[in-house]
């Protein structure tokens, strides 16, 4: 069973954060960031979540989903805020699950910012790094824990964390978690949580699989959607160039150099292709680095920091970075390979044109890839203009792939397996009630009382 709100509650004007009645300490942190008005997803989701209701929220990337769930969480946890040094006084009361390490780290940074003026502890745990510092941190206690599913289960098995007092659960980028095959881990985690918890599920899109997940893990959720499904932002200009082979690489070099672009994200479908392209771009005089699933967490974080700092012109990435990578001012996204799944195109180009800024999405496609472009156009219900790109004749690669500083002379990097993004699809389920609001450019980064959370009876 699901509930709904009247359709005349659509957002027509900016809603100031002061209108929500958030705790003064949280408002102090919001004001310190300079944010004044909520985005549509925040304006709709925050009051519902503050009231203790379950929420299914969908919005385009860059519209402030993190603040939409973290601000209500902080507000509802304020009765438990304390400055005690005892770990027992700081049990995990809110659990935020994310699909990737990068997103977990980003969410943690945002939550820490919003909670900077209140005595609530936050922690983040994810794989790919030494588990011992995380263990020590968890044993100090924290009210809000951000985690990737696999590493969280590692800590549970080692008895580093107890989830018996979790009153709020967030599934962030839930569609991505399904794509990456996290459902078995999610099932295990759910069995460790109290039954009376509040559930908040956020996703870039609503699909039958997501609605089924919502029916499984949420109770009478209110569905909030602030953009038509699978829409691309109006601030992003799209164009596709028919190119193949070496011409694609030459096109990337030409676009970056001729337009003096910096902080460009280039998407490749495979790990080996991602690493190879980054090396080739370096040899062509473009400051580039790659990020994909075979990289260690330290390597990935180092590349991301360099990219955010502007010392890299190009970050070549697989879809591991398609969601959750929040870098302000990315002017351009280039699809070096068209994604095999049309929805990934929406997430990829969502890295540009954020927070109301303009951006450009360029697709490079060989003849055999045009069918993927047609699938994308069918999904977004928009025809992507085709263009012609004239490349300088002098742009030939000067050295062999393995001759750069990334590999020893005469050696090539070993082949890496392709990323596996998709798991077996769910069967369609009945849709939840929907509350629609007109999407506007983001201006911020960003049921009852829960028995277990607030000390009452759980159901």
TrEMBL record:
<dbReference type="InterPro" id="IPR011545">
    <property type="entry name" value="DEAD/DEAH_box_helicase_dom"/>
</dbReference>
<keyword id="KW-0378">Hydrolase</keyword>
<dbReference type="InterPro" id="IPR044742">
    <property type="entry name" value="DEAD/DEAH_RhlB"/>
</dbReference>
<dbReference type="GO" id="GO:0003724">
    <property type="term" value="F:RNA helicase activity"/>
</dbReference>
<feature type="region of interest" description="Disordered">
    <location>
        <begin position="392"/>
        <end position="441"/>
    </location>
</feature>
<feature type="compositionally biased region" description="Low complexity">
    <location>
        <begin position="402"/>
        <end position="417"/>
    </location>
</feature>
<dbReference type="InterPro" id="IPR050079">
    <property type="entry name" value="DEAD_box_RNA_helicase"/>
</dbReference>
<keyword id="KW-0963">Cytoplasm</keyword>
<dbReference type="InterPro" id="IPR027417">
    <property type="entry name" value="P-loop_NTPase"/>
</dbReference>
<dbReference type="Pfam" id="PF00270">
    <property type="entry name" value="DEAD"/>
</dbReference>
<dbReference type="GO" id="GO:0016787">
    <property type="term" value="F:hydrolase activity"/>
</dbReference>
<feature type="domain" description="Helicase C-terminal">
    <location>
        <begin position="235"/>
        <end position="399"/>
    </location>
</feature>
<keyword id="KW-0347">Helicase</keyword>
<feature type="compositionally biased region" description="Low complexity">
    <location>
        <begin position="427"/>
        <end position="441"/>
    </location>
</feature>
<feature type="domain" description="DEAD-box RNA helicase Q">
    <location>
        <begin position="15"/>
        <end position="43"/>
    </location>
</feature>
<dbReference type="InterPro" id="IPR001650">
    <property type="entry name" value="Helicase_C-like"/>
</dbReference>
<dbReference type="GO" id="GO:0003676">
    <property type="term" value="F:nucleic acid binding"/>
</dbReference>
<dbReference type="GO" id="GO:0005829">
    <property type="term" value="C:cytosol"/>
</dbReference>
<dbReference type="GO" id="GO:0005524">
    <property type="term" value="F:ATP binding"/>
</dbReference>
<feature type="domain" description="Helicase ATP-binding">
    <location>
        <begin position="46"/>
        <end position="224"/>
    </location>
</feature>
<dbReference type="Pfam" id="PF00271">
    <property type="entry name" value="Helicase_C"/>
</dbReference>
<dbReference type="InterPro" id="IPR000629">
    <property type="entry name" value="RNA-helicase_DEAD-box_CS"/>
</dbReference>
<keyword id="KW-0547">Nucleotide-binding</keyword>
<keyword id="KW-0067">ATP-binding</keyword>
<dbReference type="InterPro" id="IPR014014">
    <property type="entry name" value="RNA_helicase_DEAD_Q_motif"/>
</dbReference>
<dbReference type="InterPro" id="IPR014001">
    <property type="entry name" value="Helicase_ATP-bd"/>
</dbReference>
<protein>
    <recommendedName>
        <fullName>DEAD-box ATP-dependent RNA helicase RhpA</fullName>
        <ecNumber>3.6.4.13</ecNumber>
    </recommendedName>
</protein>
<comment type="similarity">
    <text>Belongs to the DEAD box helicase family.</text>
</comment>
<dbReference type="GO" id="GO:0042255">
    <property type="term" value="P:ribosome assembly"/>
</dbReference>
<dbReference type="GO" id="GO:0009266">
    <property type="term" value="P:response to temperature stimulus"/>
</dbReference>
<feature type="short sequence motif" description="Q motif">
    <location>
        <begin position="15"/>
        <end position="43"/>
    </location>
</feature>
